[in-house]
């Protein structure tokens, strides 16, 4: 590959900017919920229904988004994601009822699928020797955006101003992407075929060496793979539900002002931003399952404490805890493990793992629509479900931990 044909730093810049805006997009409905309720003539149940559409949009597109990335290139796939996000943002303004809002929110889920399928492979190809750290910065950009969003909401009260600005920023990113070259697209067909063959041979050698080193004991997809996919679901469920509903918890359970309730998301997002960097260091020195179990157990403990003894101080602490121990990087640790377990099926298992995360975007808000209303008790029930799923995830982690001792190659990077 002729590295002079492209600039990896520019590839990274366009990707990180995209995720910076996307981080705000995923929370925009909950942050401006009062305005959207009036605009769409609905209530908190309607808002929850709209949020659940992100999951459906993600689920119906995540299966073929990866195929499109390999077939049509990283750049084109990312552009589809960016345009989908623009459609979502402008669609929210055009919507005059919940049904229209639900339709346009499907595009945000699609944006997530195409962004991930284009961005992560592009970063891996552009930075082959430090792909893990470059990929982790995607989460950092999202966390930074979500940290700043409540302050933006406080400064700019009209969502009709914010959404067009976000759309323009995404359009500028589309222009920037077309002005640079992505290394995958720069390969000629013959060179691409040769590289693919070399990678396939390397994977075969890795599997053979691992099988010999572990006396034939290799992870089983039906047990270890399924368990990790379940963990991908539980981890995502923990932080996604928390980030979407903690403002409602603050206003209904603690009777906080709208501004104070939304600030809880800032504590959560800032903590997750810090965690991205700390966890990347910790995971190099500790057994991955130890880290995941400890993080998830702490998150589950504070969720239980929060719903048992709700107070403003405890909720702020819990926001910090969930941001750090649930949203700051352990999902990526699980992805690393499943990729190491099944190197010859890396693309397939990554798709399954991401699909489980996408499922939470729909399942959590959908279940909540049957529970949630404007009462404090309903919000306690919503977070009790979040705590239950988190604890269940810890149990699965513990089971897989006892199995992993026979595999010597389990080491994240």
UniProtKB/TrEMBL annotation:
Cell compartments where the protein resides? Cell membrane
Protein name in UniProt = MFS transporter
What organism is listed for this UniProt entry? Companilactobacillus baiquanensis
Family matches, as SUPFAM superfamilies? MFS general substrate transporter (SSF103473)
What keywords appear on the UniProt entry? Membrane, Transmembrane, Transmembrane helix, Transport
Q: How does it sit in the membrane?
A: Multi-pass membrane protein
Under Gene3D superfamilies, the record lists: MFS general substrate transporter like domains
Which protein family is it in? Belongs to the major facilitator superfamily.
The answer to whether keyword Membrane applies is: yes
């Amino acid at each position: 590959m002729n590295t002079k044909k492209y600039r990896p730093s520019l590839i990274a810049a366009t990707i990180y900017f995209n995720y910076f805006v996307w981080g705000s997009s995923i929370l925009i409905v909950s942050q401006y919920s009062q305005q959207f309720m009036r605009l769409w003539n609905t209530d908190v149940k309607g808002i929850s229904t709209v949020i659940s559409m992100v999951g459906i949009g993600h689920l119906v597109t995540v299966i073929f988004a990866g195929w499109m990335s390999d077939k049509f290139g990283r750049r084109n796939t990312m552009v589809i994601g960016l345009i989908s996000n623009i459609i979502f943002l402008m669609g929210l303004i055009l919507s005059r009822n919940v049904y229209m809002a639900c339709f346009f929110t499907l595009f945000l889920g699609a944006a997530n699928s195409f962004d991930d399928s284009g961005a992560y492979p592009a970063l891996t190809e552009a930075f082959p020797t430090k792909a893990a750290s470059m990929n982790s910065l995607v989460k950092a950009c999202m966390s930074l955006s979500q940290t700043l969003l409540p302050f933006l909401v406080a400064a700019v009260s009209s969502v009709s101003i914010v959404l067009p600005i976000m759309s323009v920023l995404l359009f500028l990113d589309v222009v920037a992407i077309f002005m640079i070259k992505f290394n995958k697209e720069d390969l000629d067909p013959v060179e691409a075929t040769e590289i693919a063959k070399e990678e396939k041979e390397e994977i075969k050698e890795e599997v053979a060496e691992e099988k010999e080193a572990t006396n034939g004991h290799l992870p089983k997809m039906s047990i270890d793979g399924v368990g990790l996919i379940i963990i991908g679901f539980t981890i995502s469920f923990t932080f996604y539900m928390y980030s979407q509903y903690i403002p409602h918890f603050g206003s209904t359970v603690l009777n906080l002002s709208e501004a104070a309730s939304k600030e809880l998301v800032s504590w959560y997002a800032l903590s997750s931003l810090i965690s991205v960097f700390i966890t990347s260091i910790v995971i190099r020195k500790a057994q991955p399952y130890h880290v995941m179990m400890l993080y998830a157990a702490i998150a589950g403990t504070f969720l239980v404490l929060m719903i048992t003894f709700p107070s403003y101080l405890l909720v702020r602490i819990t926001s910090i805890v969930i941001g750090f121990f649930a949203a700051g990087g352990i999902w990526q640790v699980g992805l690393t493990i499943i990729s190491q377990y099944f190197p010859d099926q890396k693309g397939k298992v990554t798709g399954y793992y991401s699909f489980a995360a996408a499922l939470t975007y729909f399942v959590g808000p959908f279940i909540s629509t049957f529970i949630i209303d404007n009462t404090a008790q309903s919000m306690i029930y919503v977070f009790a479900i979040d705590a239950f799923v988190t604890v269940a995830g810890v149990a699965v982690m513990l089971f897989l931990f006892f199995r992993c001792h026979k595999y010597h190659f389990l080491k994240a990077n």
